[in-house]
Design a protein that fits this description.
By secondary structure, the protein is mainly beta. It is built from two helices and 14 strands; from the N terminus they run E-E-E-E-E-E-E-E-E-H-E-E-H-E-E-E. The strands form three sheets. A seven-stranded parallel beta sheet has the order 1-2-3-4-6-8-10, with no helix packed on it. Strands 5-7-9-11 form a four-stranded parallel beta sheet. A hairpin with an 8-residue loop joins strand 12 and strand 13 (172-179). The longest helix is centred in the middle third of the chain and has 6 residues, at 130-135. It is elongated, with a radius of gyration of 23 Å. It starts with 5 loop residues before the first strand and ends with a strand. The mean pLDDT is 91.
Length: 202
């Protein structure tokens, strides 16, 4: 039906949903089903999408530039790119498996609500402006995640393991491990060493 504008099919046991011919659809509620995928590439008129409580692992919303409300909480989504969805006012993506979240869409001041909590592997959220994001009290995330305009730098996390030397000996050592950022990494100690570990410290 090419003239269908509203579709509510929530609370069923749907495992698939073909919306390819519903090009006029602007309001879709398919929450609480058994969907593992959702193809919305032809539904460019969508302004509201509610697909929470499914088994969706990926969600491509690049073509939905009119999307205002997104509720995709309680799925298995690992990466969510909303950088082209500049009309967004509400985003609920909590309780997923997110490792990447990009809301850097050039219009973050239009985004009234953001809930990205309960994504324990999400370390960084791409935003337009870090200060604005940090001061926004109605945006929520896990404590281990940060807002950044460049997550490649924000996720650079060095950690050290130091062993103190014993009395009158040079058996101390320091070992450095790094995650995030962009490999390869370069190490430079004041001893001249360039390895991840230095030993024989006093």
């Amino acid at each position: 039906n090419t003239k269908l504008t509203l579709l509510y099919v929530y609370g069923n046991q749907l495992s698939s949903l073909n919306l390819s011919t519903n090009t006029a659809l602007n309001d879709l509620d398919c929450h609480d089903n058994s969907l593992s995928a959702l193809n919305l590439s032809t539904n460019t008129a969508l302004t509201e999408l509610k697909c929470q409580y499914n088994n969706i692992s990926s969600l491509n919303l690049a073509s939905l530039q009119n999307l205002s409300i997104l509720n995709c909480q309680y799925n298995s989504i690992t990466s969510l790119d909303l950088s082209t969805d500049s009309a967004l006012t509400e985003v609920y993506c909590n309780d997923n498996a997110l490792t990447d979240l990009n809301i850097k869409n050039g219009n973050n001041t239009n985004l009234v609500y953001l809930c990205a909590t309960a994504n324990t592997n999400l370390n960084c959220i791409l935003v337009d402006n870090e200060q604005y994001a940090n001061e926004n009290q109605v945006w929520t995330k896990d404590g281990g995640a940060v807002y950044s305009t460049n997550c490649a730098c924000a996720e650079f996390l060095p950690s050290t393991n130091a062993v103190d030397p014993s009395c009158l000996n040079n058996d101390g050592s320091i070992d450095v491990s790094v995650t995030g950022g962009s490999a390869p990494y370069t190490y430079s100690w004041n001893t001249g060493a360039t390895t991840t570990t230095i030993t024989n410290l006093t």
